[in-house]
Amino acid sequence: MPDPDPPPAAPAPVFDAHCHLDAMAQRAGVEPTREFVADVMAQARKVNVTRVITVGDTLASSRWCVQAATEHPDVYAAVAVHPTEVAGLTDDDYAELEQLARHPRVVAVGETGLDYYWDRTTPADQQLHFRRHIDLAKRIDKALMIHDRDAHEDVLQILAEEGAPRRVVFHAFSGDVAMARACVDAGYVLSFAGVVTFTNAPGVRQAAAAVNTDHILVETDAPFLTPHPFRGRPNSPYLLAQTLLTLASVQRLDVGELCVSLARTGNTIFGFDLT
């Protein structure tokens, strides 16, 4: 079967709220060089995806993300240690993480949160480090980018106990309508990835339909969560345009209207302008 045609270009500039450029290179079996990132962004710009946030999941990855953001004007960074990687983190590690997070090209602390699917770290350890990441985001006043897998109730409870930062984004939102409404009531933003296009994920589409557009972002999580009909290949920021089509349909909006709303929310949450 031939490959699907590339998705149509967005009618207005949009940004990928969450991707992993270094993991994309690793998946492709190449080094994450400046040239690699430039090629990814050139492909993305063909469909009007003009900015990306590349997200760290370890200290080493976070260092790389900051470097990439300094080298490319259309790349921003988020830095954190993923909940499945937090075992053994020290105070010195957190001091370095804070230094990275304060960089002007870093727009969020993330991805952090809870992941009860994998068992590489204990729930208690994850919760301890999630609280430390929340504290960091609050102290430096940057957005908190949350990874939440099979841990909805605990994530919401810890945010309530700690007092959430002013700006909170649930990356690759996977909850149901009730979870979505609870997040919106708390002032959080939900970022939808390629899962919203999957035929076996009606609950995620229902959640997206239940949320006011001002509380929505769109992402790829590249190289993961590739949208239909491109599943089976590594994801990339240019495929954001495909997820955008489904999200606009779910929201019963013209794609251009959704682009304008996404740009406005991105400016509010991350502080950058697509114009």
Overview of this protein structure:
The protein is of the alpha/beta class. The chain has one domain (14-270): TIM Barrel. 43% of the residues lie in helices and 16% in strands. Strands 1-2-3-4-5-6-7-8 form an eight-stranded parallel sheet. Helix 3 (59-71) runs parallel beside helix 4 (91-101) and helix 5 (123-140) packs across helix 6 (152-162). The longest helix has 18 residues, at 123-140.
Biggest beta sheet summary: 8 strands, parallel
Compute the average pLDDT: 96
- CATH architecture type: Alpha-Beta Barrel
Any idea what the radius of gyration is? 17 Å
Instruction: Provide the CATH superfamily.
Output: Metal-dependent hydrolases
Molecular shape: globular
CATH topology (level 3) name: TIM Barrel
**Gap between N and C termini, in Å?**
39 Å
Strand proportion: 15-25%
CATH class group: Alpha Beta
Structural class: alpha/beta
Give the strand order, joined by hyphens, for the main sheet.
1-2-3-4-5-6-7-8
Please tally the β strands and state the result: 8
**Helix proportion range:** 40-55%
Provide a count of the helices.
Answer: 10
